[in-house]
């Protein structure tokens, strides 16, 4: 913790409440990282997946409640962020409107999750970017993320040693190493690998050789796991993110790209040594999963989602209708069902309509436009380290958005727990910071403070009702879970909860 406090300099000077708020931000990120990476290994009552979802819901509820007060308290904040807040408001109306016609008893839960996620990104990112220097929150966040990557890499090597001692199966079959599905780990890989170069450049700890070696080897181990598990979507996505950064930032991206490719090279070397040479020397079966060239059944699900999106064009079939609808295409009738179509954009189009997807695309367009503006200004607005930071976060978010077209990046709780912080940080980096560092907590009028308090209380009531709905949804899952465990594996799969295919009467 002392090392973390040192990382807060010089972004927050003089200590006091502003420094404590940044420390709180880092502590929440630490909890999110710990649950995302190690939740599946902890003896939690409801299991790691459900614990991650509960933590995410509480986190979003708190952020939205506090954010509602800050919108009123901080002069000009709502006006400065008018376009993203307005778009989020329209998106909210679009997806909440389905609740009035849906027969699903838990029709408000997932819409509330997405609304809370979007509001948190805009408000948290806006507050951080407007009132604190990037070094105040980016540097300690990068240290925490790097430490999490190293810790999981060390755990993976322990699993590898266990496999060497008792090689009952192929190494790749020994996965998923703490996750109910290795693809949930690969989503974190997409978010985090582009940020590891920052741990070698912007943090004070980068001056220590042990830290640098640990980060390089840790990142290499993550790349090795991605190759071992044939994480095609993740590898393609981080490649797309790196290409986007190079196209946008050109020469400014070269320091980041050098470090990024270093992790890839170390990962390939580790894959050769650990997955091929070591097993061969010990007389074991070498290699990982076969690198397929097909769609793994995704095309069938994408066709089904596309057909759904045209049923009530352009408004979709309602929340969680992917779980509850009668199959529309012949291919999907004969395939194994999943809790989502492995494409977030088609899932949103199917359930919430193309109107909602277009509104989200408008939000994304505004984000890309701001990135291009900052990149065009280049040396005029930031130091070399800040440009490296921006390259890392742009690559991370771009990769995750690309990965969402092939996976459940924005429904799996471990991915969303990390993603909400990283998206907020990117939005903060793109803001125009005020000359004063830190946020004022005095000098506001009594009327403004009163209105801010009332705003927070009203939103707190709404979020409490939503959390009660989340709790009821969880209880229903626990009641139905034993029934589905008795059936075939095809009827049991994650969505909002680890088991999400209910209520019972809606099962096809």
From TrEMBL:
Transmembrane segments: 21-41, 53-74, 81-101, 113-129, 141-164, 184-203, 210-227, 233-249, 261-282, 345-368, 388-404, 410-430, 450-473
InterPro entries xref list: O-antigen_ligase-rel_domated, WaaL-like
Organism: Marinobacter flavimaris
Pfam family, one: Wzy_C
Domain O-antigen ligase-related span(s) in chain numbering: 224-360
Annotated protein name in UniProt: O-antigen ligase family protein
Domain of life: Bacteria
Annotated membrane topology: Multi-pass membrane protein
One cellular component (GO) term of this entry: membrane
GO molecular function, one term: ligase activity
Localization per record: Membrane
Record bears the keyword Membrane: yes
Keyword set, alphabetical order: Ligase, Membrane, Transmembrane, Transmembrane helix
First-listed, main subcellular location of the protein, grouped into a coarse class: membrane
